[in-house]
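#struct-pred
JK: can someone run the complex with magnesium ion? inputs below
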Amino acid sequence: MSKGLPETRTDAAMSELVPEPRPKPVVPMKPVSINANLLGYIGIDTIIEQMRKKTMKTGFDFNIMVVGQSGLGKSTLVNTLFKSQVSRKSSSWNREEKIPKTVEIKAVGHVIEEGGVKMKLTVIDTPGFGDQINNENCWEPIEKYINEQYEKFLKEEVNIARKKRIPDTRVHCCLYFISPTGHSLRPLDLEFMKHLSKVVNIIPVIAKADTMTLEEKSEFKQRVRKELEVHGIEFYPQKEFDEDLEDKTENDKIRQESMPFAVVGSDKEYQVNGKRVLGRKTPWGIIEVENLHHCEFALLRDFVIRTHLQDLKEVTHNIHYETYRAKRLNDNGGLPPGEGLGSVLPPVPATPCPTAE
Ligand SMILES: Nc1nc2c(ncn2[C@@H]2O[C@H](COP(=O)(O)OP(=O)(O)OP(=O)(O)O)[C@@H](O)[C@H]2O)c(=O)[nH]1
Ligand SMILES: [Mg+2]
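RT: done, structure tokens with the ligand placed:
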């Protein structure tokens, strides 16, 4: 096993002395796996520390969008999501006023710092979706917004003098709020998810889960999963993008048990057993949003922030953006379309696009 190494070294030393071309190896060269113990410590593993330092310096972007019918608690939930993540005292979310009705697609940026790492978070709040009498094609403005962000990124990418770090406004995650009816999904829900799941990572959530009994919640979750399956709607994490068995095992559990997360939101704090908790006060007690016995908010938070944040960004870049980019360039014979991109531009080097046909 250790034979390969000294030979390789000898070859290398000889090639320095004798300027003749080396004879071709009889068998095709395979990468030689160097046993670190033979040479002593090389330091390959420090790459993690180097990456950590870079991330600490630059921070990272994360853009999350919320969509759903008016009054389902979208604004409240994003406040809960990030308020539960940062020190409650220093949080810029520590405001007690009532959350106003959202009236336009609005992106609000925040910088959250934790453990020395900066997250540039943008929350894209959409006004009550499907509140019109005629809701036909009402996903269009949302799809348009998402595509505009891809277009912006593409334009920056194909610029001759491009920025060292392209500002990333692409939507990495879209929380879709399902009304806690206990019946079935509305045609509008299905239409939205069907169209948008091809352009963005959709995570369906059942809103205001405190309005359902445990049995209703469990049955409704099952029904929603079944309906999505019957209609062929893929939500995040999509099966086809699981990279290995470990991913598959972890994501199968999420797909088959957790989805859609039945959540409760609140940005009000109460004292429970001497601890301050985010909750909703009801005549029969306080619903603690981070208590897993009360709702699945903590599961959703852990999933979006603690286990899948990087993957959400990667799938956005490698799958959704790549599909958009390939289509845009294809439509224009390999050249970036539109004005303002410059007239003579080199074709953008093609990178493999898993979903492009
Ligand atoms: N019972 C219950 N009420 C909630 C929950 N989350 C929010 N609410 C309440 O629902 C109302 C609407 O909440 P918002 O967060 O403004 O809802 P929204 O979806 O952003 O509404 P629009 O901006 O109009 O689209 C508020 O009175 C909230 O306090 C929840 O999980 N359970
Ligand atoms: Mg709102």
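RT: quick notes.
Strands lie at 60-68, 106-114, 117-125, 173-178, 202-206, 261-262, 269-272, 275-282, 285-288.
The mean pLDDT is 80.
JK: thanks, will look after standup
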